[in-house]
Structure formats: structure tokens, C-alpha cells
Amino acid sequence: MIDKTETAAALQVAGTTPALSRSARIAVPELVMAWGRGWAVSRGVPDPVAIAGGFRADVGLRGHRVRYVLHTWDADLLEPIARQAAAPGTWIKTAGRASDLRRALPAHWAMDNSGYLMTTRFTAGTDDPPSPYETRITTDGDVVVAAVLDDSGEVAASGRLAPAGSCGVIDQVETAPAHRRRGLGTTVMRMLSDHAVRNGLGTGILVATEDGRSLYGVLGWAVQCEIAVAYIREA
Fold first, then answer.
1. Where are the beta strands (DSSP E) in 96-221?
2. Are 194 and 205 spatial neighbours (Cβ–Cβ below 8 Å)?
3. Quick one: 132 exposed, middle or buried, by C-beta within 10 A (0-12, 13-18, 19+)?
4. Quick check: 148 and 187 in contact, CB under 8 A?
5. How many CB atoms lie within 10 A of CB 76?
């Protein structure tokens, strides 16, 4: 069981520092809640609803109907959520180790790959993409979409930035398979960072995959905690 009063020790990721980086100065629970608000804006889903230890988001997609995200939890807090939210397509994400989440859940919950909550201090400035690529910034409501286009005008790489108070949440950074390993993901990230600074957003937040964690680390993003993931399959 993870005691609710534990912070750094409960959230430590092997190989990283348990303390927040100097770029963030925001506690993990606040970062998780800000990420949830920004993620909802980026994905166009209803605002998350605060619950004990985190939030619930009604995603509404087949296979991903609802998600619970907990920044602070123990088995006593998790048990009623796992029991009451046992419908197919339900996801639970927790700040902390996947092994702890696995032990706390009934066997019918499946584990998914962990993510990593990461932060940075946004900085201004962009790099020109390699020839023949061009860049484009558009908006989708409150969301900024950065894209790198190939010479036929097709999107080769893109990413989204959504506001969450003074923070900016980076989401859905993707590079098409044919255009990978050309630095286009870095170009997208720097475009979004520059736009964030120009619009008064100081701290960047994202949840990275294992592969993304390496890319973002090179760009100055720091891991704050592991995000363990479990779900109930929907046929």
C-alpha cells in the first residue's frame, strides 16, 4: 500500500531524481491535474471531474470510454474505483510504479505500457526544418497545432499545445513513418515551446511513452513520475 502522505518516495522513477526539477517548481499532484485539464482541451472531451486523489474524464471512445487519473492514492482509495468503474473501456492511470498498481487491482484488469509525466520550462526560438520541409501553425479553438509539411503539402509531423492555467500541455506529437529520424519532432516541439512563451505559458507538461521519454529528455524535459496504466478490455 502506498501511503497518501508519501510524495517523492512513492513517485520516484528508477534512474531519475524524485525531486521536481528546477524548471517546474510545481508539485506532482498539481502537474497531474493541469495535465488532465490540458489533455481534455486538446482532445475535445468534457472537462475532467475532480475526485479524491485525481480526476475522472469521460472520453467516450470505443475501448476508452472513461479514464480515472490519480496523482495520490492507496489501495483503500483505489478499491472502490476499481470495483465501481469495472465496465469495459475503463482506464486507470496512477502516478507511481506499475508494479504497485498491478498488486492493487483485481486480476481482470490488464496492464498497459507505462507513461512518464515530464515537465520543462518553455523557451522561445525555433529552428528551420531541413529542406524541403516547411512549417505551419494553426489554431483549433484554444489548441495550437504545429505542423511540418513535406514538399507535397502533406503533414510529415505535428503536435498540439493546450493551455491549463499558466501551464501548457503538449499532446499528440507524431511523425509519419516515412519522415522519421530527420529532426521533425524536435522542430514541432520547438515551435510549440516558442508559441507557449509568446502566450504567457511558463511550464510545459506532457506524458511520454518510453521512446518519447528519450527524445524529450534531449530537449530538456525532466521526468517527474511514472504513470502506471491499467484498463478493462472492450470487445
1. 110-121, 134-140, 143-149, 155-164, 167-175, 203-208
2. no
3. exposed
4. yes
5. 10
The amino acid sitting at 130 is P
Report which residue type is found at 89.
G
d(CA 76, CA 64): 24
Half-sphere exposure (Cβ direction) of 178: Cα atoms closer than 13 Å = 5
197-231 pLDDT tens trace: 999 999 999 999 998 998 899 999 999 999 999 99
Dump pLDDT digits (tens) for 69-121.
Answer: 999 999 899 998 888 888 999 999 999 999 999 999 999 999 999 999 999 99
β-pairing, 54-61 vs 143-149, is unpaired
d(CA 1, CA 90): 22
Q: Cα–Cα distance between 78 and 207 in angstroms, integer?
A: 21
CB contact set of 132 (below 8 Å; sequence gap of 6+): 150, 151
Q: Residues 140-188: pLDDT tens digits?
A: 999 999 999 999 999 999 999 999 999 999 999 999 999 999 999 999 9
Interaxial angle between packed helices 184-198 and 210-218, expressed in degrees from 0 to 180 and rounded to the nearest 10: 60
